[in-house]
UniProtKB/TrEMBL annotation:
Topology class, membrane: Multi-pass membrane protein
One cellular-component annotation, GO: membrane
Organism: Olea europaea subsp. europaea
Alphabetically ordered keywords of this record: Membrane, Transmembrane, Transmembrane helix
Protein name: Protein DETOXIFICATION
A biological process from GO: xenobiotic detoxification by transmembrane export across the plasma membrane
Domain of life: Eukaryota
Residue ranges crossing the lipid bilayer per the database entry: 53-70, 90-114, 135-156, 199-221, 227-250, 271-296, 316-337, 349-373, 393-415, 422-441, 453-473
């Protein structure tokens, strides 16, 4: 039958393990895994870890799909106002709002590390303090981002947008400033709940907000005839509705981890700021890297065909990416919880299972794309020329889907383990010093065009993924457990004398 998967004691003398919270390990008596020795052990370990992974990943992915739907239906309703209005709102949401979204999400990712490890260590009283501290930092970040919205018109013109589109997009950007500030409440409360695996409420909030958003859009645009102002108002209301719903749930149903407002949120905040900035840099370097391919492609000889075909491919890649964002958050929670609980094998095995299952999904996605490479573009366009352009890019899309099945998992491990600073340096090197220059050279100095740009960027992603896989493979999880308490003191502001690595 094989050895039992859990025992109450560690099989190593390097780390003294303690019982995890019951919400983290629900098998056996709450101890760490014993070494996997037989196929039966492997099968049971995969079964247990899969349940824990998807119990977190599925609701988060569903929540993200609902959020994506809010943006999509905003564009759909605006598209019935006019083509120029549609282009303007699409530019505002994809350039201005997406920039601030990525930066603020990155800043909030620091909370995944601290709340996840604190919950795993049983220090639930600190979760509310960390959440408040993150909220203060994100509000300050929103204030710093205000010039991006206020001066969006000259900025968009500088980026080469048509003047009439830039003017309308600029007005819309000013009107959605309240939605940006809602993220300063939304993200910390979201990470607070994720760290405790309370993710079902996130799925329900996202679904209700999505349904209500469609109703409010219809009311403001079709009934009241408010035009773009109505679309912006609906966008703001949905953003604040999600944020406030999460606050209400926390204050009413999280009494074990929410103890009310505390002045400790203002104490020793600088260490938290440094981790937040490292998290933001790590995530933004990834988000902006994939945005830059559109910018480079737009300057090719036939930008309409190149950008159009690439956009169709990126749209499909984005739908797959939503699933892996959920997996990214789930593995971050799993790793941080297990490290905080003193369970090195559980952290290691959760990473192994998640990488294997994500790679399997990526391979299935790749095979589907290859099998339908001459057909799937019909869903987006009637242009035969555009369909041919998409078909030419299909193999690159297939490779990208495989790489993007692994890369978010490793990024989630980095957040869970608190390696944001290291990953930021790796992203900068692989993406911007290696990937982008190669893509620029292949795109503009050969006949490859958009395919050359994409090939270069795929190489950067491949190199980054390989390096991170090697780091994870060589990680001593016993040492990671031993360092967890030190990291919580350092980044939680409990001992600001220690420098952030």
């Amino acid at each position: 039958m094989g050895t039992p998967l859990f025992d109450g004691k560690s099989s190593t003398n390097e780390v003294v393990l303690h019982d995890a919270p019951s919400a983290v390990l629900v098998y056996g008596d709450g101890g760490d895994y014993t070494p996997v020795q037989t196929f039966y052990d492997v099968k049971n370990m995969f079964y247990l870890e899969s349940i824990k992974l998807w119990a977190i990943a599925a609701p988060i992915a569903f929540n993200i799909v609902c959020n994506y739907g809010i943006n999509s239906f905003t564009n759909i309703f605006v598209g019935h106002i006019g083509d120029v209005e549609l282009s303007s709102v699409a530019i505002s949401l994809s350039v201005i709002a997406n920039f601030s979204f990525g930066f603020l999400l990155g800043m909030a990712s620091a909370l995944e590390t601290l709340c996840g490890q604190a919950f795993g260590a049983g220090e639930t009283d600190m979760l509310g303090v960390y959440m408040q501290r993150s909220g203060l930092i994100l509000i300050a970040a929103c204030i710093c981002l205000l010039p991006l919205y206020i001066f969006s018109v000259p900025l968009l013109k500088l980026l080469g947008q048509r003047h009439d589109i830039a003017e309308i997009a600029g007005r819309f950007s000013l009107q959605i400033i309240p939605q940006m500030f809602s993220l300063a409440i939304n993200f910390p409360t979201q990470k607070f709940l994720q760290a405790q695996s309370k993710v079902t409420i996130l799925a329900w909030v996202g679904f209700v907000a999505f349904v209500l958003h469609i109703g409010v859009l219809f009311l403001f645009i079709k009934v009241f005839k408010w035009g773009l102002a109505g679309a912006a108002a609906a966008y703001d209301i949905s953003g604040w509705g999600v944020a406030l719903a999460q606050v209400v749930y926390i204050t009413g149903w999280c009494q074990d981890s929410w103890k009310g407002l505390s002045w400790l949120a203002f104490k020793d905040i600088w260490a938290f700021v440094r981790l937040s900035v490292a998290s933001a840099v790590m995530l933004c370097l990834e988000i902006w890297y994939f945005m830059s391919i559109i910018v480079l492609t737009g300057h090719l000889d036939d930008p309409v065909l190149a950008v159009g075909s690439l956009s169709i491919c990126m749209n499909l890649n984005g739908w797959e990416g939503m699933l892996f964002i959920g997996i990214n958050a789930a593995i971050s929670v799993r790793v941080s919880n297990e490290l905080g609980s003193g369970h090195p094998r559980a952290a290691k095995y959760s990473v192994f299972v998640t990488v294997v299952e994500s790679l399997f999904i990526g391979i299935i996605s790749m095979l589907i794309i290859i099998a339908t490479r001459d057909k799937f573009a019909i869903l987006f366009t009637n242009s035969v020329q555009m369909q041919k352009g998409v078909s030419d890019l299909a193999y690159l899309l297939a490779v990208t889907m495989v790489l993007n099945s692994i890369q978010p998992v490793i990024s989630g491990v980095a957040v869970g383990g608190g390696w944001q600073g290291l990953v930021a340096y790796i992203n900068l090197t692989c993406y911007y010093i290696i990937g982008l220059p190669i893509g620029f050279f292949l795109g503009y100095n050969t006949n490859l065009g958009v395919q050359g740009i994409w090939m270069g960027m795929i190489f950067g992603t491949f190199l980054q993924t390989v390096i991170l896989l090697i780091i994870v493979w060589k990680t001593n999880w016993n040492e990671e457990v031993a360092q967890t308490s030190e990291r919580m003191r350092k980044w939680g502001g409990l001992n600001d004398d220690l420098d952030v690595k």
